[in-house]
Every structure is written in C-alpha cells, then in structure tokens.
Amino acid sequence: MMSFFGLLSGRWRSVVVVSVFATINLLVLPLHAHAAQKVYFAGFALAGDASNIEKAFPLTSAVLRERAADGRPLVEAALSQHVAAVQIQNPGVDLQQGLSPSVTGGDSVSMAFVLDWENVAREQIEGNEKLIIDLHGQILVFDFDSKRVIASYPVALQFIHVERGRSTREIEESLVRELYLGEGSANLLRKFAERLSAIEIKPSFGNRIQVVSVELEDKALETLREAGQDESIFKSKIADLFGSRLSENLRVAIVPHSKGAAVGSKMAARFADGRAFQFELPSADYEVHLTVRGFKKALLDENPVQQAWAYASFMRVAVTDDESSKFFMDAAFKFAAAKKVPRDAKHEDWPAFQESIYSLIDQITTQIDARDSGWIGKWATGDGVSAQLAEVSRIIARCR
C-alpha cells in the first residue's frame, strides 16, 4: 500500500481529486434565432428538507452560517462573484443574477447550484488519520414559476487530506471551508463556474431514466450499523453515485433522484438565504432499482510486517419500465478491493467497503456499453448477464 507519510511536509499534506461529470439534459430550453434565452441564477441550495439538512450536510452548514458584510451567507456572496465572472460559451443563453420574475413566455427559467452529497471518510493509518472529503452537487436548471426541473449537470470534488494524529470537527470544518472559500485549486464554487461556462443546450432529447429506489438487505444493514452509518443518508449516496456514474460513463440524461422528505416526483431544496422549494421532477420512462446485498472482508495474505485484505461489496441492479412491470435487467454483481495494512496497526473497515462499492458502481455502469466477457464472468452472478447489459445499452441509446 502506498504510504502518504513519506510525502508529509509540516503538519499535514493534502491531495485533490476533481471530477466534473458529463453534461446531462432532461428537457430542451427554447432557443430563438434572434434572442438569447434568459436564465436567472437563483443561488446555492442544499438538497433535502429542513429537518435533515444539518445531519446530511454538517460541515457545509457550518460554513453557511458565516455572513458577508451585506448580510448574505459568505458562500452565496462568493458564488455570485464566480457566476458574475462566467463567460457563457453558448450564445443561446443570457445568464442573469437573481431569481426570475414571475412572468410567462419562458422567461422564468432559473438555475441553482444544489449540493446533494457531503461525506467524510476517515481511516487510521500508522497513528495518523486519512480524510477523504467528497462534495457532490449539480447545476439545476428549472422553471421558477412551475418549479419544474429542466436539466441537471452534476459536478463533484474529492479532497484527500492526512492529519497527523487524530482529526477534529474543527479541522474538518476548516478544510471544507477552504473547499468553498479558499484560493487554492480545490474550490467547488470555481469548479461549478467552470462547468457553467461550458453548458451545452441540446436541440433534442430522448426518453428519461432515473434511479428510483435503493434497498438494503440484512447483511448490508449489519455492516452499516457496525460502522455507525446512517441508513437513509447512505441510500441517497448510492442513488446519487449510481446516477452520476451512469450519466458520466454513458453520456445519458437522467432524472435526479428524489431524496429527503420528497414525495413521488418532488425534490426538496433549501437555499442558503432560507428559501425552501419543492421541485417537480419530470417522469422517467425507465427506472433503476438498486439493492445493496452486503459487504464481506477476507484475509488474502499476511507476513510478520503487514496483512492484505479483500473488501467485497455485493449489489443487485434491476432496470424496468416506468411501471416496474417489465424487467430489462435483473442481475447481481460483486467486486473486491484489496488493501494492505501494517500488521499491528488499527484501521477502520468502512472506508475500504466504501471504495469497494463505489468501484463496483463505476464498473457496472461502464459495462453497459463496453461489455467485457472477462469482467462479467468474474464479477457478475448468473446466466445471461451480458445479454441483459446489452438490452440496457439499447435503452440508454433511447435516452440520449
């Protein structure tokens, strides 16, 4: 296992991994030959209802409590500055600051940056603590009058930090604050602005696909509880991650996953200035149902110095029509990630299980179009999985 500690300089050293996902269009904004489409920027929001915000986004919530001189949340003020500097490459878009007026004729098209996932994975290594901070959001385009979602453009940032000794809440809040307000390259708001500058409005679209459910079997629940993980938040993370990887790997339009207290085709979001909306999601023609079956740890090898462990995750993926009556795929998959640790060092299993299931999701979505018989034979369970993946590939083609 690569050691981070030989690279340490001073108190700590951090690594940044940035991923900006592919453009996703759900509907088409009306483009006119002689007039650009006005799109009003509505600001920064957190996905979910008010009762779950502090629990789902504890570090971001702390940053949002900081205020600028004009009384606005500091994050909101910084984001406005980034948006003001954006040069939209699409000539059919005229970006305006502030919420849209309540008018008709298409002028109520608005845009917001909605954070839908905050996560910190911690791992003890040789007396130090490795932190993996994930912030996932989306550029959400919507009709302000009807609150109907028009398009979604996922954006993500991952930040890896090694703290000498144990990390604290104050340290983690400081790190996340830098990811929003810092001058370094690891800045989520800057990545949002960069993505916003390259938005492409496509002239047509096909059908729509959505991750609609995530179920946890007993073995998965047992591991989650042992690791102290919240079941509902974990289910939302899996749904978001599967949808994001599906869209990036296959360049396909998706309908955002409903979360929090959303009911049916509604998605709740609470803005930094206190406003809260329920957005209406367009209906999906195809549905993805995920079941996390469980996790397993097995010793692969050991010597007097270190041990090698395999961390496996197991998942079932079903793709159906919009009534969940016709199955295009219903297959089980697994994947094991190997990890070497010092023999006598204390380490946590949950970060390795997370890495395993995240890798599994990435590989499943990749296999839909780029099927590899060797991978399918090793990591898929049952007969006819390749044919099922091919059927899903044909469905995806209708959604592009």
Give an overview of the whole structure:
- The chain has 400 residues and is α/β, with parallel strands linked by helices.
- Strands 1, 2, 3, 4, 5, 6, 9 and 10 form an eight-stranded mixed β-sheet that branches. Strands 8-7-11-12-13-14 form a six-stranded mixed β-sheet.
- It has helices at residues 50-56, 58-64, 74-84, 169-181, 188-197, 218-226, 231-250, 350-369, 373-379, 385-399, and strands at 12-19, 37-47, 93-97, 109-125, 128-143, 148-164, 209-216, 254-255, 266-271, 276-280, 286-302, 306-321, 327-342, 380-381.
- It is globular and about 65 Å long.
- Helix 7 packs parallel to helix 8.
What brief labels describe this structure?
14 strands; about 400 residues; disordered N terminus; eight-stranded mixed beta sheet
Major pleated sheet: 8 strands, mixed
Fraction in helix: 25-40%
Can you count the beta strands? 14
- Which class best fits the helix and strand makeup? alpha/beta
Ends apart, CA distance between termini: 40 Å
- Please write the string of helix (H) and strand (E) elements: EEHHHEEEEHHEHHEEEEEEHHEH
Q: Low-confidence segments, ≥5 residues, pLDDT <50?
A: 1-34, 260-264
State the helix count: 10
The overall average pLDDT, rounded, is 82
Could you write a compact summary of the structure shown?
The protein is α/β, with parallel strands linked by helices and 400 residues long.
How do the strands and helices of this protein lay out in sequence?
Blueprint: E1 12-19, E2 37-47, H1 50-56, H2 58-64, H3 74-84, E3 93-97, E4 109-125, E5 128-143, E6 148-164, H4 169-181, H5 188-197, E7 209-216, H6 218-226, H7 231-250, E8 254-255, E9 266-271, E10 276-280, E11 286-302, E12 306-321, E13 327-342, H8 350-369, H9 373-379, E14 380-381, H10 385-399
Parallel strand pairs: 2-3, 2-4, 7-8, 7-11
Antiparallel strand pairs: 1-6, 2-9, 4-5, 5-6, 9-10, 11-12, 12-13, 13-14
Helix pairs in contact: 2-4, 3-5, 7-8
